[in-house]
Design goal:
With 73 residues, the chain is an all-alpha fold. It has helices at 10-18, 20-39, 44-71.
């Protein structure tokens, strides 16, 4: 093996790049939730419920990408 030879799976590299999407998505979801609560603190309960649902959906997509990175070889 030469020092410049690349070994490993490109699927794992693809998943590493794909983690940027869910990371940015989670940041935007909580940014919007915190911003809404700061503007209207009495609506905290109605604001946080969609925030948690959105967080769960984004994280489910991240886990799905993680699984597919190892299944597809």
């Amino acid at each position: 093996m030469t020092p410049l030879e690349i070994s490993g799976s490109l699927n794992v590299l693809g998943y590493g790049l794909a983690t940027l999407g869910p990371g940015i998505g989670v940041a935007l979801i909580f940014y919007a939730g915190i911003n809404g609560i700061a503007r209207q603190p009495e609506a905290r309960g109605t604001i946080m419920q969609p925030v948690y649902i959105g967080f769960a959906i984004v994280e489910a997509l991240a886990i799905l990408g993680f699984v597919l990175a190892f299944v597809i070889r």
